[in-house]
Write a structure and sequence with these properties.
Blueprint: H1 3-33, H2 42-52, H3 56-59, H4 61-73, H5 75-84, H6 86-107, H7 112-141, H8 160-187, H9 191-216, H10 219-222, H11 224-230, H12 235-253, H13 257-279, E1 282-284, E2 288-289, H14 290-293, H15 297-312, H16 314-327
Antiparallel strand pairs: 1-2
Length: 333
């Protein structure tokens, strides 16, 4: 494996981490949106606040990691993506800030009306932001981010592949969040919430699986390079993802929520990895290869060194944060 490929793999590990951790974070907003009115939805929203409250800021570290590696290691690709997709990327940034602000302000709102407003902002931005992120991924994977023939910043991410990517992003986030919330409800011994979350997780898992299968076929005409990769190089990962999703649903039916978290993570990580493998060796599909987009040799070595340093400092700190939040007891109001 070349040095440029090594840096690309490291960067894509950040994409996978963001998809898993931030995915579950975003997905909680879907269930917050559908929880019901103030009285009926209060238990679900309390569970969501307890689950994501301590870690929602840390999840976006992975997005920053990916952007810095893309900017530093593959500057031409970074510049092209930002130029062609400046509109959706701006909306994503706005959505992340709006979501985080609303989540924080809702807890301290001086009135019920303001709490409802902030809650609606949190929930809606939790759905819209991953949809746009999926659209951005679809624009890159379908070859619409080009160097010399830039597409419109609107049409580049509103074609079938991007719409499929956005839909699957929202469904996957909802599925992950439902599985994690089911395990959290089990840990807190909240039987009614456990059953409610378990039902949501099973249904969202089935819907996501069906949508993923149906979503592959339009890619044959809209994103042929991606379609070919998914059916050849990436096929084993797609099969692993399908098995992970099916295993998660079966474990939830058996009420084994903690094990279901593991298989759900495997399912999501595998399908995201499948996307990367399917478009290999392109960083901009049909336009720019990883080897051609790579920056200076010394810069790439610096990125590898930084990754090794982060692996022994930042990663253990994040792991401890997740472990600590899983051990803490819920506050009693």
């Amino acid at each position: 494996m070349t040095l440029a490929s090594t840096v690309a793999v490291i960067m894509f590990l950040g994409v996978i981490a963001y998809a898993v951790f931030a995915g579950a974070d975003f997905g909680s907003g879907v269930w917050d949106l559908t929880a019901g009115d103030d009285k009926r939805g209060a238990p679900m929203r309390t569970l969501i606040d307890h689950s994501i409250g301590p870690v929602w800021e840390a999840n976006h570290v992975w997005l920053i990691f990916v952007l810095v590696y893309l900017w530093t290691g593959f500057p031409t690709a970074f510049a092209t993506i930002c130029e062609v997709l400046f509109l959706p990327l701006t909306l994503v940034g706005f959505g992340i800030v709006l979501r985080g602000s609303a989540f924080a302000f809702r807890k301290f709102a001086p009135s019920l009306a303001q709490a409802r407003l902030f809650g609606a902002m949190f929930a809606v931005s939790s759905v819209v932001t991953p949809f746009i992120l999926g659209g951005v991924a679809g624009a890159i994977a379908s070859g619409r981010v080009t160097l010399n023939r830039p597409a419109s910043s609107w049409t580049a991410w509103t074609h079938p592949t991007s719409l499929i990517g956005g839909t699957l992003a929202v469904l996957t986030c909802a599925f992950l969040a439902a599985v994690f919330l089911t395990a959290e409800a089990a840990k807190q011994h909240k039987v009614d919430l456990f059953e409610a979350c378990r039902k949501r997780a099973i249904i969202s898992g089935i819907v996501t699986g069906v949508a993923a299968l149906l979503g592959i076929w339009p890619l044959d005409r809209d994103a042929p390079t991606l379609f070919h990769g998914l059916n050849h190089r990436a096929l084993p990962l797609i099969l692993v993802s399908g098995a992970g999703g099916a295993g998660t649903v079966w474990l939830l039916i058996q009420r084994k929520a903690r094990l279901a978290r593991i298989t759900a993570v495997i399912a999501v990580a595998s399908v995201v990895a499948g996307w990367g493998v399917a478009q290999w060796p392109w960083i901009l599909v049909d336009e720019l290869k990883i080897s051609d987009a790579a920056g200076a040799h010394q810069t790439l070595w610096g990125l590898v060194f930084v990754f090794m340093l982060a692996a022994v400092t930042v990663v253990p700190s994040l792991a401890y944060l997740l472990w600590f939040t899983q051990r803490r007891e819920p506050s009693v109001s």
